[in-house]
Amino acid sequence: MKRIYLDNAASTPTRPEVIEAMQPYFKNCFGNPSSLHFFGKETSNALNDARSKIAQMLGARDEEIIFLSGGTESDNLAIFGTAYANRDKGRHIITSKIEHSAVLEPCRFLEREGWKITYLPVGRDGMVDPADVKEAICNDTILISIMHANNEIGTIQPLNEIGLIAKENDIYFHTDAVQTFSHIPAKADEYHVDLLSFSSHKFYGPKGVGGLYVRKGTAISPYLYGGTQEFRLRPGTENVPGIVGMGKAAQMSMLEMDAQRSYIASLRDKLVKSLLDIDGVRLNGHSTQRLPNNINITVDYVDSEAMIINLDFKGIAVSSGAACVSAMKGPSHVLTAIGLSYEEARSSIRITLGRDNTEEELSYFLDVFKDVVNNLRDMSPVFQERRPGSR
Ligand code: PLP
């Protein structure tokens, strides 16, 4: 069966060039990068090279890049690391209601430990208002953590404004850039960020590897203890093949970013237009300040799970939101935060495009999608009752 992958926010396929770059580090180049001999030098050079590539993307220094196991570990280190290192200065953190669970759960943990956490609301478009950030600051605030772009609805936050507020108030600023790193430009200084999280499998690199940008001079503690790797912030032998692959993926993205972004955005705009022509379909998230690859729609009278399963039967992969909480019951915290009812949130799907998608695939998707929606609506008693012309 022909398969069409439209869930690139969950994960992206690893590029063949990335796999090729990783190969030697599974074979002959196997030394421990902390070893002093030739074999160690070979892999520590490879780590340094990948570190430089990532640093270049962010306009950062090499030593400001810490390699970790992915976005979740990066968010956890940013939050616990700054919270514990700055506990004597204050115990208040500002974040938003629509952060990924990798930010929200560490915040909830700290809350149970007696910290005060402000979860800022967002508007219907998913935007955090910088004025709300300013208002939430108190003498105890040590960290502001606001994501760059939301993984469900794609809204891009006004990071430069929020970052400036953090800087003026001498408060650390973390952003979860897992959905944007390598897709849209992000320079640490432009956004005034002190900490920035990224994850390789979201930009055509391997899974299980990512990192945290930590501005020089930021007070942060490790939360794992052991060796002195990664500037004493993350002990443990580094995942050399993974890091090499991530470096290669970042390097390739940097070269192709503009062209890729406009190609994907043009596919998205065309598809959004056709989807909005269908009765009872609405776009969620900001209309312009959104990720080039993200479409999140509410489809009245159709259950999202039924849509996903029926599309999957036809070989099309979409999702209803974050893959890592798909086992959770209940509507998405992001969709309810933007004001959708329980019913609307349970009728919403996320379509996220990637560099490999084509116009033909999307026109096939559109035909199948219309059929699926019509069939499901035909079976829905609520739709039958409320459809125009019914009694
Ligand atoms: N933050 C955001 C915004 C994400 O979308 C994800 C993954 O979906 C993560 C964090 C977690 O990243 P990882 O899967 O690398 O742990």
Write a short abstract of this structure.
This protein has helices spanning 16-22, 38-58, 71-85, 101-112, 130-136, 159-168, 188-191, 240-276, 304-313, 333-337, 342-345, 359-379, 381-386, and strands at 4-5, 65-68, 92-96, 116-120, 141-145, 172-176, 195-199, 210-214, 281-283, 294-299, 316-317, 348-352. It is of the alpha/beta class and 391 residues long. Strands 2-8-7-6-5-3-4 form a seven-stranded mixed β-sheet, with helices on both faces. A three-stranded antiparallel β-sheet has the order 9-10-12. Strands 1-11 form a two-stranded parallel sheet.
**Major sheet description:** 7 strands, mixed
Query: CA-to-CA gap between the ends?
Result: 42 Å
Principal-axes shape call: globular
Helical fraction equals 40-55%
Poorly predicted tracts of residues: none
How much is the average pLDDT? 96
Tell me how many strands there are. 12
> How much strand?
5-15%
Spell out the helices and strands N to C: EHHEHEHEHEHEHEEHEEHEHHEHH
Give me the side-by-side strand order of the main sheet: 2-8-7-6-5-3-4
DSSP summary: helix tally: 13
Cα Rg: 22 Å
User: Ions, cofactors, ligands: which are bound?
Assistant: pyridoxal-5'-phosphate
Task: Return the structural class.
Answer: alpha/beta
